[in-house]
Write a structure and sequence with these properties.
Rossmann fold; 2 domains; 12 helices
């Protein structure tokens, strides 16, 4: 078809081409839209790595978005995936079966671990560590996140503070506290891996972290007023990123009997870009179904399609971090946590990323307050069990 059109234009002239004038007028607009879309889709991971036999823990993989795209790519490369999910219900089990069938990989398992519940996080980590010899672990890919609707718009529902099972603000609990607790508890597993095993801890973050605040004295934000959902989201991402820098230093300073450096375990922060994700839909619609249908789907979607990434395109930066040889021990030029944006090493913008003392203090205070909160919740659970047992005893016939 294109050959016929070109031949007609050269031999008989452009006047013989149907709708030539209309096509001529539309061509600049089509070219401009194509150029913008090519730019907004972001870079593509160009590294290839065989993941056969490797074992990874994934969070946020059941989103039917970026997380699912990453899990599918890793599964197709032969990786064994331990996918943490909030509920092991009928839907998640069916999703897992579909992933196994799509990837032709049966080494995909679901483990119930709600990051909103510190007790569940500890149960999973304890079960993982309670194995001799230590279980193989080639890395953890953290893609879970929660962006609450937080815009005060007339005629739409007023944003309210949602709490986790431990009473924390849900974004702080999901994006920061739960992930921090999981990786902190899994430190012995990371340190126990052989020195020739390339272990990668990949944590996704967001550009909104530049708007966040660091609450060193109250890192769980238990005493903070809920004045802005965006503030809590941005702060949760910023605090997690700062703690990851401290985690890397702790892994390097670990005492190894065989004298190895510990550089085989690397922590990496990844910013996948703005995607048409569940969180974006929820934020734009402010949690309203009507706004989701009319504002997001009809009014804004053409612009969002043009200027934002799809889920599979956002996954490219995570896959780059997983496969690039730049994070291998032999290629390390320093001991800093790498920040990857659009498949490229980038620099941090906030001054807090240069403050080592702040990062370590934030890490220590977070760990301490999580332990205190766990103790309080354990006492509360025991009281509830006793009250329940007492109530059941009264109901029994004499």
């Amino acid at each position: 078809m294109p050959v016929n059109i070109i031949g007609t234009a050269l031999i008989e002239g452009t006047d013989k081409i149907p709708y030539y004038n209309e096509l001529k007028k539309a061509f600049p607009y089509v070219l401009a839209i194509s150029a913008i879309k090519f730019w907004s889709r972001g870079a593509t991971n160009t590294w290839e790595r065989n993941l056969h036999g490797k074992v990874y823990i994934l969070t946020g993989a059941t989103t039917q978005g970026m997380g699912t795209a990453v899990a599918l790519d890793m599964a197709r490369r032969g990786a064994q995936l331990i996918i943490l999910t909030r509920n092991c219900d009928e839907w998640s089990l069916e999703w897992c079966e579909d992933l196994r069938a799509s990837s032709d990989n049966n080494l995909i398992y679901l483990e119930q671990c709600d990051l909103n519940d510190l007790h569940e996080v500890r149960k999973f980590a304890t079960k993982w560590l309670d194995n001799s010899p230590p279980r193989r672990l080639d890395g953890a890919v953290v893609m879970s996140g929660d962006l609450e609707p937080g815009l005060s718009i007339p005629l739409l529902p007023k944003p309210v503070r949602r709490s986790s099972k431990d009473g924390l603000e849900v974004q702080i609990a999901t994006n920061f506290v739960g992930v921090f607790h999981l990786l902190d508890l899994l430190q012995p597993s990371f340190k126990a891996q052989p020195p020739d095993r390339d272990v990668r801890i990949i944590v996704t973050t967001c550009m909104l972290q530049a708007m966040g605040s660091v609450n060193v004295e109250d890192p769980l934000w238990q005493k903070a007023n809920y004045d802005s959902a965006v503030k809590f989201f941005a702060s949760s991402k910023l605090q997690l990123s700062l703690c990851m820098l401290s985690l890397q230093r702790r892994l390097l300073k670990a005492t190894h009997k065989d004298g190895r450096s510990g550089k085989n375990v690397t922590v990496c922060l990844v910013q996948p870009g703005i995607m048409r994700s569940t969180s974006l839909r929820r934020f734009v619609s402010n949690g309203s179904v009507l706004a989701l249908i009319f504002v997001y789907s009809f009014l804004l979607y053409p612009l969002l399609w043009l200027f934002t990434k799809s889920a599979s395109r956002g996954a490219q930066t995570i896959l780059h971090a997983l496969m690039t040889p730049e994070l291998e021990e032999i290629n390390w030029k320093d001991e800093q946590v790498k920040y990857i944006v659009n498949c490229t090493m980038s620099k941090y913008s906030r001054k807090e990323f240069e403050d080592v003392e702040l990062q370590d203090t934030l890490y220590d205070n977070t760990s301490k307050q999580i332990l205190e909160l766990e103790k309080r919740m354990a006492l509360q659970r025991n009281k509830q069990k006793k009250a329940q047992a007492k109530g059941e005893g009264k109901k029994r016939p004499a």
